[in-house]
């Protein structure tokens, strides 16, 4: 099983990614949350790669995160559209023309933009605790930088906070372009993302349904078995 980081130059940046499973198996792309990296998905990826319907699993470190950040690629440009274009370029470089996509939090927001831009690329879409793209009220206050070295670019935190407080209205307006059957996994009342915001996002996507795993925001990390119990059957269709 191949899970060591690989490197690829795409969209003007260098991205690291991990891969699991046989190269010929149907692909699934896992997109991590803000501040994490592709290794965050390792237990889930191993299960998907070796489960009843084995998959080829890809998990990149988004720009400004993890090894992609440590490679020196801190471009300072962290618009969601830039992250989307990185993902699209990565899939082209990998020769993937149709894939399932699973995105958590920030990764889920990026996954929505990928599915909007290239609906034929995304076969099935899973969004883990992703809110509707509406302005926060009250806005998120400016974050204070922790001391020491960080496994991500602090400029990414500032940029994504700004976009969360005032998301581009086009993001919500274009959700109808998503043609993939979509499963939204809410973390329930213990998550800082209100379940109603997850339900509101589902209402913007034509073929979407919501399930709740009361695990807080980190559903796949806190309750991996319950997460897989809803995600694996959905991806198997």
How would you characterize the overall build of this protein?
There is one protein chain. The protein is α/β, with parallel strands linked by helices. It has a single domain (about 5-235), classed as 3-Layer(aba) Sandwich (Rossmann fold), CATH 3.40.50.1820. It has nine helices and eight strands. Strands 1-2-4-3-5-6-7-8 form an eight-stranded mixed sheet, with helices on both faces. The longest helix is centred in the middle third of the chain and has 15 residues, at about 80-95.
Q: What does this entry show, briefly?
A:
By secondary structure, this protein is of the alpha/beta class. Helix content is 35%, strand content 19%. It has an eight-stranded mixed sheet with strand order 1-2-4-3-5-6-7-8, sandwiched between helices.
Key traits:
35% helix; Rossmann fold; alpha/beta; eight-stranded mixed beta sheet; 237 residues; globular; single chain
**CATH superfamily heading:** Alpha/Beta hydrolase fold, catalytic domain
- Indicate the percent of residues in helices: 25-40%
Number of helices: 9
The major beta sheet can be summarized as: 8 strands, mixed
Catalogue the unreliable spans: none
Q: Please state the CA-atom Rg, rounded to the nearest Å.
A: 16 Å
Please report the total strand number as a whole number. 8
Strand content: 15-25%
Q: Please name the CATH architecture.
A: 3-Layer(aba) Sandwich
Q: What is the domain tally?
A: 1
**What is the CATH third-level topology name?**
Rossmann fold
Principal-axes geometry comes out as globular
Q: What is the mean pLDDT?
A: 95
Order of helices and strands: EEEHEHHEHEHHEHEHH
Distance between the termini: 25 Å
Class by helix and strand content? alpha/beta
* Arrangement of strands in the largest sheet: 1-2-4-3-5-6-7-8
| CATH class type | Alpha Beta
């Amino acid at each position: 099983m191949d899970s060591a980081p690989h490197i690829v130059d795409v969209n003007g940046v260098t991205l690291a990614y991990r891969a699991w499973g046989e190269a010929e198996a149907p692909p699934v792309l896992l997109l991590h949350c803000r501040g994490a990296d592709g290794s965050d998905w390792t237990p889930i990826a191993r299960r998907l790669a070796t489960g009843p319907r084995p998959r080829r699993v890809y998990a990149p470190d988004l720009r400004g995160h993890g090894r992609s950040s440590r490679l020196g690629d801190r471009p300072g440009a962290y618009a969601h559209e830039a992250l989307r274009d990185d993902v699209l370029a990565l899939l082209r470089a990998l020769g993937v023309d149709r894939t399932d996509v699973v995105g958590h939090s920030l990764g889920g927001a990026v996954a929505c933009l990928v599915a909007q831009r290239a609906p034929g690329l995304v076969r099935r879409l899973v969004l883990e605790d992703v809110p509707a793209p509406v302005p926060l009220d009250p806005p998120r206050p400016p974050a204070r930088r922790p001391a020491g070295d960080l496994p991500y670019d602090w400029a990414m935190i500032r940029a994504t906070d700004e976009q969360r407080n005032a998301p581009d209205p086009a993001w919500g307006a274009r959700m109808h372009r998503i043609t993939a059957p979509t499963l939204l996994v809410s973390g329930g009342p213990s998550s800082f993302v209100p379940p109603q915001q997850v339900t509101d996002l589902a209402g913007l996507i034509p073929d979407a349904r919501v399930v709740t795993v009361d695990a807080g925001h980190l559903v796949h990390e806190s309750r991996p078995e319950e997460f897989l119990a809803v995600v694996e059957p959905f991806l198997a269709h």
